[in-house]
Structures are given as structure tokens and as C-alpha cells.
Amino acid sequence: MKGRIILQTVTVVVLALAAYTALILLGEKKIVFHPYKYPEGYWDPQAHGLRVEDVFFQSEDGVKLHGWYVPRPDAAATLLWFHGNAGNLSHRLDNILELRRLKINVFIFDYRGYGRSEGEPDEEGIYRDSRAAYRVLTGTKNISPDKLFLFGRSLGAACAIEVALQHPAAGLVLESAFTSAGDMAKKMFPILPAARLIRSRFDSLSKISRVRLPVLFLHGDRDDLVPYELGRKLYDAANEPKEFYDIRGAGHNDTYIAGGEAYFATLDRFIAKTLGQKAGS
Predict the structure, then answer these.
(1) Which of 86, 182, 185, 245 would be 194's cystine partner, CB 3.0–4.6 Å?
(2) Which of 59, 154, 176, 180 does the annotation list as catalytic?
(3) What pLDDT score does 40 carry?
(4) Residue 223 is among the residues annotated as catalytic for this protein
């Protein structure tokens, strides 16, 4: 009798775990991507004193995409921003406003399925979109790669690394970055085999050692979404020159707020140092 109860209990637990795993796999895309479509968001930057240029362009497979280009007449460099997996570019408005203290142009765009961009997101699709955004700057906007910095945040770090593997740039900035989708799955679902079963890879760890650019890593030491140790692990695998900046007291979404002046000074110093090295090389 006791053995039967134990067997039934084990069976129920196994079935429950199997069902939970199946739900995760079926809902993988919704777990990875959380897009907000237009008009959700903050689409009146001029109300905040920010003048932006709407840029519409096509991805490699013809999907129509949208971005904001924020020029600065005295810019020393340009930042190509690959944002994270939630919201849309307009949800980064406050961060863009804070970046005005730096002498940089900013181009932020929405992946397919986000904001005013068409289509539906998937891993290969957002890589295509990222490469297309790079070509907008180096082609349409005539930005020299020697003055271009790739800035990837959270999921966007995987996109920035993908672009850095294939295209020249001055430097790479990775904020709140993780090593791979598998490592994230292990952290989120520690007792399930989701890491081995999910289709998404976002395998930045295997790619970062092939990137030959100066890299600045930034990570909040209280990040409750992307574990700090994953950011350090990615840093350890990167080539020199590289540096890691701990954002004290920062979680996942408040890095530039918690970091304050020191955060922006770190970005400014990295850009200036990298450009100086380029000029002297």
C-alpha cells in the first residue's frame, strides 16, 4: 500500500514536470520576446525636448523596420543601440534623454514585431534586423565604422555580438549581458530540462572569443533577471582589451539611474579612450 502511494506520487510529479516543460517549450517565444506594438509606449519625444528622425528601413529578408536617429552636431561617435526583449524603443526615451550629456549620435531601432516594425520576432530574424540597422548607419547615414560603437543591452547584447563578428566597429558595449539562452533557462527553471530542449540559442559565450574589438561590460550587482555571474563569465571569455564595470546597487532595468554620473562617465571614458587608441594606431 505504501509502495503504491509512493509510486503514484512519483508518477504525478513526473507528469506534472513533463506538462510544465511542454508548456515552457510551447510558449518559448512568449518567454523570450515581450514586444509592445505601436501605439503602446511614449511616442512624443519632442514633448520632452528631444528631436528624433524616424528611420524606416528593410531587414535582409524584406521586413519593414523602424528606428529613431538622434543626431548631435558635435558628435565624436555614434551609438548603435540593440535594446532588450521587452517593450519597444520608445520605452528607452528616458535613457536616451540622459545620453544627451555625451557627445554621440544615437540610433535605436525596433526588431521585427516591436513598436512600428513589422513581422514577428525570432532569433535569426532579430539578427537580420541588427545587421540591417548597422548598414543604415554605415550606408545611408555614412557613419564611419571607426566612430561607431555597438551597444547591446540584455538580449540585445547577443545581437551586438553577432554584428561585431561580421562587421567592423570602434568598440562594443555590453550591458546586463548573458552567456546563452541555455544558461538563462537553467537559472529560470533549475529543475527542468528546458535548457536542452529550447530552440533559442543566443550563444554569446561561443562567439565572444572571436570578437576583436575593445569591449566594455557593465552589469548591476543586484540584477535579479540576468545573474551577475553570467555577465562575469562572458567577460572572462572575451579578448583584451576589455573592462568590467560593476554598477553598484543596480538591478536589471535601472542601470543608468542607479549608476548615476559614474555610469555615464564610464561610457564617456571608454568611448574617448577607444577613439584615442584608434587615432594613435
Answers:
(1) 185
(2) 154
(3) 98
(4) yes
